[in-house]
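User: Before I run my own analysis I want an independent prediction to cross-check against. Here's the chain; please return only the C-alpha coordinates and, at the end, one sentence I can use as a sanity check.
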Amino acid sequence: MALYVILASLTEEGAKDIPGIIARRADGLQGLERHGIKRIADYALMGSDYDFMYIVEADSNETILRQVVRDTASGKLRFQTMPAVTLDDFANIVQKQQ
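Assistant: C-alpha coordinates:
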Protein backbone atom coordinates (compact mmCIF):
# COMPACT_ATOMS: atom_id res chain seq x y z
CA MET A 1 0.00 0.00 0.00
CA ALA A 2 1.29 3.45 -0.91
CA LEU A 3 0.91 6.51 1.28
CA TYR A 4 -0.66 9.76 0.05
CA VAL A 5 -1.13 13.24 1.48
CA ILE A 6 -4.21 15.01 0.15
CA LEU A 7 -4.67 18.73 0.74
CA ALA A 8 -8.18 20.12 0.25
CA SER A 9 -9.50 23.66 -0.13
CA LEU A 10 -13.14 24.65 0.19
CA THR A 11 -14.77 26.09 -2.90
CA GLU A 12 -17.27 28.94 -2.48
CA GLU A 13 -20.04 26.36 -2.51
CA GLY A 14 -18.21 24.24 0.05
CA ALA A 15 -17.66 27.21 2.37
CA LYS A 16 -21.46 27.63 2.49
CA ASP A 17 -21.88 23.99 3.54
CA ILE A 18 -19.18 23.32 6.15
CA PRO A 19 -21.66 21.73 8.60
CA GLY A 20 -22.87 19.43 5.80
CA ILE A 21 -19.33 18.45 4.89
CA ILE A 22 -18.61 17.55 8.51
CA ALA A 23 -21.92 15.70 8.89
CA ARG A 24 -21.12 13.52 5.85
CA ARG A 25 -17.59 12.72 7.07
CA ALA A 26 -18.44 9.32 8.58
CA ASP A 27 -20.20 8.19 5.38
CA GLY A 28 -17.27 9.49 3.36
CA LEU A 29 -14.78 7.48 5.40
CA GLN A 30 -16.82 4.31 4.85
CA GLY A 31 -16.89 5.09 1.12
CA LEU A 32 -13.11 5.38 1.08
CA GLU A 33 -12.79 1.93 2.61
CA ARG A 34 -15.18 0.46 0.04
CA HIS A 35 -12.94 1.86 -2.70
CA GLY A 36 -9.75 0.41 -1.18
CA ILE A 37 -8.48 3.54 0.59
CA LYS A 38 -7.50 3.46 4.26
CA ARG A 39 -7.61 6.70 6.28
CA ILE A 40 -4.53 7.14 8.43
CA ALA A 41 -5.36 10.64 9.72
CA ASP A 42 -7.30 13.74 8.78
CA TYR A 43 -6.96 17.31 10.00
CA ALA A 44 -8.58 20.72 9.70
CA LEU A 45 -5.90 23.32 8.95
CA MET A 46 -5.65 26.95 10.02
CA GLY A 47 -3.62 29.76 8.47
CA SER A 48 -3.00 27.95 5.21
CA ASP A 49 -4.18 27.92 1.60
CA TYR A 50 -5.69 24.54 2.46
CA ASP A 51 -8.58 23.79 4.80
CA PHE A 52 -8.13 20.04 5.32
CA MET A 53 -5.34 17.48 5.12
CA TYR A 54 -5.88 13.76 4.71
CA ILE A 55 -3.26 11.05 5.03
CA VAL A 56 -4.37 7.82 3.39
CA GLU A 57 -3.08 4.51 2.04
CA ALA A 58 -4.13 3.00 -1.27
CA ASP A 59 -2.93 0.29 -3.60
CA SER A 60 -2.33 2.60 -6.58
CA ASN A 61 -2.32 6.10 -8.02
CA GLU A 62 -5.38 5.07 -10.05
CA THR A 63 -7.36 4.30 -6.88
CA ILE A 64 -6.55 7.73 -5.44
CA LEU A 65 -7.24 9.49 -8.74
CA ARG A 66 -10.67 7.88 -9.06
CA GLN A 67 -11.58 9.01 -5.53
CA VAL A 68 -10.32 12.57 -6.01
CA VAL A 69 -12.31 12.85 -9.26
CA ARG A 70 -15.45 11.64 -7.45
CA ASP A 71 -14.92 14.06 -4.58
CA THR A 72 -14.08 17.00 -6.85
CA ALA A 73 -17.33 16.43 -8.75
CA SER A 74 -19.25 17.46 -5.60
CA GLY A 75 -18.07 21.02 -6.28
CA LYS A 76 -17.31 21.59 -2.60
CA LEU A 77 -13.58 20.89 -2.42
CA ARG A 78 -10.46 21.22 -4.58
CA PHE A 79 -7.58 18.83 -4.02
CA GLN A 80 -3.81 18.57 -4.28
CA THR A 81 -2.63 14.99 -3.95
CA MET A 82 0.94 13.89 -3.29
CA PRO A 83 2.46 10.43 -2.93
CA ALA A 84 4.55 10.25 0.24
CA VAL A 85 7.19 7.96 1.76
CA THR A 86 8.24 7.71 5.38
CA LEU A 87 11.55 9.29 6.32
CA ASP A 88 12.89 5.82 7.12
CA ASP A 89 12.05 4.65 3.58
CA PHE A 90 13.54 7.85 2.18
CA ALA A 91 16.75 7.27 4.17
CA ASN A 92 16.97 3.70 2.85
CA ILE A 93 16.59 4.92 -0.73
CA VAL A 94 19.30 7.54 -0.22
CA GLN A 95 21.66 5.01 1.38
CA LYS A 96 21.25 2.64 -1.57
CA GLN A 97 22.36 5.43 -3.93
CA GLN A 98 25.67 5.92 -2.14
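Sanity check: The first helix runs from residue 12 to 15.
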